[in-house]
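Sync notes, pocket subgroup
Present: LS, DG
LS reminded everyone that the earlier model was apo-only. Rerun requested with flavin-adenine dinucleotide included. Inputs:
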Amino acid sequence: MHPFVLERPRDLSAALSFGAQAGRNDAPVEYIAGGTDMVQLLQEYVRRPDRLVSLAGVLDDGIEIGPQGLRLGAAATMAEVAAHQAVVEHFPLISQALLNSASPQVRNQATMGGNLLQRTRCPYFRDVGYEACNKRVPGSGCAALDGENRWHAVLGTSDDCIAVHPSDLAVALVALDASVELRGTGGDRSVPLSDLHRLPRDTPHLEAVLEPGEVITAITVPATAAGLRSHYLKVRDRASFEFAVVSAAVAIETDGARIRQARVALGGVGTKPWRLPNVETALAGADFEPAVLRQAAALAAEGTRGRGHNDFKIELMQRAIVRAVEIAGARA
Ligand SMILES: Cc1cc2nc3c(=O)[nH]c(=O)nc-3n(C[C@H](O)[C@H](O)[C@H](O)COP(=O)(O)OP(=O)(O)OC[C@H]3O[C@@H](n4cnc5c(N)ncnc54)[C@H](O)[C@@H]3O)c2cc1C
Ligand code: SF4
């Protein structure tokens, strides 16, 4: 492990003053929250900051629900949010996505902010024995393009990086039109979750839109998303403790036997959490006939680009959408 200084600021403004930069491997100063991702990356020499700024005790960990919707403090843990009665009742998609993530031990420690900014599980990124990884070392190439790319993305890829965004929570939040509240030395701002993560393009080492020093302070989910019938379907290589091969977050409003409005996002297939407005439009007004659902889900394949080992995801993600819509529709 590269030696670093651990800073334990007394409050948030002291934390911000260190100018830590989330999600960049070349950053000399980084934040640490629950540490479940950061410590692994430090141990494996993937990240080598000179200074780590602990966010423990300086960020809100509240979970509030009101007329405006849901507000999750960035320090709330995955376990606390997943089990919170109001979340389970009114935003079950969030609870389901969290309970399908990691292990109970990790969920007890990991925070909302850290979850959204966890780094990709691309094996070439996480093993410094591989020299070619543009995300870790800009300009070094991408070992996954012609390597073992079964887990990699088919949406939002570039010739420089095809790594999948790993957070299940983020997929559910994108489907629910959530936003993140950010705070930096310059003040506060709110960013839609769909804009928090960048596409890799030719700068895959820049993963999020946070400015130096900025932290996520909270996640907000509008009340309009409450009460929708929803389902988070996660397809993975083993039943627990595993990242998504493909996941589908679906929330629908029905009008009798028809879908009035649908929200659909995919995980495991995109370089960022992937919302599908074209599929949503096709589902609006549809009944639950399998052929109709399949036709709508087929639009998810627009713009996909497989790399060989991961071609199967293009068919699998359409099937996941159909299944998730059927399950959501069957909920009382
Ligand atoms: C064995 C294992 C299995 C897992 N399986 C899954 C899974 O199936 N699905 C899934 O979604 N996740 C999974 N995870 C990942 C896990 O969810 C993340 O490790 C965890 O959510 C990170 O949260 P943390 O608080 O520990 O973040 P940390 O490790 O402390 O930080 C992660 C990153 O976020 C930054 N950061 C943290 N908080 C803030 C903030 N408030 N503002 C700005 N930057 C911040 C840090 O600088 C760092 O870059 C798994 C992890 C493990 C170890
Ligand atoms: S896919 Fe991205 S993270 Fe993986 S090796 Fe290529 S550049 Fe690195």
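DG: Residues 111 and 208 are 17 Å apart (CA to CA).
LS: The mean pLDDT is 96.
Action: DG to write up.
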